[in-house]
Amino acid sequence: MHRAGVPGLSAAALQEGQLAWQFHLGQANAQTGQSLTSEALFEAASLSKPVFAWLVLRLAEQGRLDLDEPLVRGFRPDWVDDHPWNARITAREVLRHTTGLPNWRRQPLQQSLHPAVEPGTRISYSGEAFFWLQLVVEQLSGLPLQRLAWQLLFAPAGMCDSDFAWSDDLALRSVWGHAAPGRATSSTLPRQMMREAWTVVEPLAAQWGLPLSDWRLEDAQRAFASLGSAVPNAAVGWPGDLMSNAAASLRCTAADYARFLRVVMPGAGGPQLSPPWQRLFTESQFEQHPPWTSKTLGWNLERTSAGQLLYHGGNNAQQFRCFALADPAARRALVVLTNGGGGDQVYQAVVHAATGLTLRAFEPSSRP
Fold it and tell me: Nearest-CA neighbor of 348 among 328, 362, 335, 330?
């Protein structure tokens, strides 16, 4: 951790489908010296995506969403242009990252959204696609993301320390992000992008009597307009930065994410998808680098000497680096959350020490 410039780490492991180990070490804020606790909340970054994918599959299992229905029929935001390929993007394409859409537009207020490659033809990792699908899901369910997640997953799974939104209570428990060695420009902490964005709109949420967990797109758009010349800024580039985000805004403890990982393990307790839908979540749905890795609807899958393993990484603003690895057949899993930009060096060492494996997922050429 010291070599990688990572002040704080939290980890948890499952054995036989049960939470068997928790560990935390270091600081929540290196500038103030605030110590880390087991209840500290980390930005899980893209580890948000498998959680959201499970919610989508649950809705599909319930007949409330069609995986192969074009998203434009459910909800077409005004920034999704009329490119013919946009009309071919479905939830299935989103969850396996074959939409052809970019990860994130660099200038969302000026740029429209459309695929760079034909949907369904190759892997094109996209947070934008997950956010669009989130808006469709919110339209179909009538619930904002956090409310839906609590109803379908967090409450049934006992995940009481997980949230896609923000509140004063969450702020008190949330750790701070730290730059990787060589990236820091001073002794102060880097800009806390997501924290700053939430802080900008907290007064509006209080004024409107509408908690941020209840905000949907129209609320974020109204807030963005209300802020006037205060936006865009470094932390808020468009209305989408002012609301829960299925691709990146999950905040949780390592133990809670481990509780989520039980959903990939039959008989491990908590909510479970029925077998046909579970196979979509845990088995190969699109080959990425044959024959060693592929995409499920929600995970990356690597074929190793120890069998097929599910994995996903996360990186918010080069300040929060995290990784989750699961072996459904053996009913074991590991999650590592860090609050430093060099956290990938740490979680790779932890995974290797815990499994004896050197994953090809850690090779630079394999990263999205």
Answer: 362
Please state, in angstroms and as integers, the Cα–Cα distance from residue 52 to each residue in 102, 134, 169, 251, following that order: 19, 8, 23, 13
H or E stretch including 303? strand 300-304
> DSSP character for 340?
B
Residue 10 phi, psi (nearest 5): -135, 135
Which of 173, 221, 147, 167 has its CA nearest to residue 40? 173
Predicted TM-score (pTM) above 0.90: yes
The model's pLDDT over 99-129, given as tens digits with 9 standing for 90+, comes to 999 999 999 999 999 999 999 999 999 999 9
Strand partners, 96: none
pLDDT at 364 over 80: no
Owner of token pair 């994953």 = 359
Determine how β-strand 300-304 pairs with β-strand 307-316. Answer: antiparallel
Encode 318-334: b = buried (16+ Cβ within 10 Å), e = exposed.
bbbbbbbbbbbeebbbb
User: Given this model, what pLDDT does residue 186 score?
Assistant: 47
Q: Where does residue 275 rank: exposed (0-12), middle (13-18), buried (19+ CB within 10 A)?
A: exposed
Q: Which letter does DSSP use for residue 300 in this model?
A: E
Q: Outline where the chain has alpha helix (H).
A: 48-61, 71-74, 91-95, 127-141, 145-149, 155-157, 168-173, 193-208, 217-227, 254-261, 275-282, 343-355
C-alpha to C-alpha distance for 348 and 217, rounded to whole angstroms: 37
- Contact status, residue 5 vs residue 177, Cβ threshold 8 Å: no
Q: How far apart are CA 260 and CA 275, in angstroms?
A: 17
CA angle, 256 then 354 then 35, to 5° = 50
In 16-125, the DSSP E strands lie at 18-29, 34-35, 42-43
Q: Give the C-alpha separation, 313 to 357, whole Å.
A: 16
Cross-sheet strand order for the sheet of 251-252 = 42-43, 251-252, 162-163
Q: Which residues have CB under 8 Å from 38's CB, separation 6+?
A: 10, 22, 24, 253, 255
Q: What is the pLDDT of residues 232-288, one digit of tens each?
A: 999 999 999 999 999 999 999 999 999 999 999 988 888 999 999 999 999 999 998
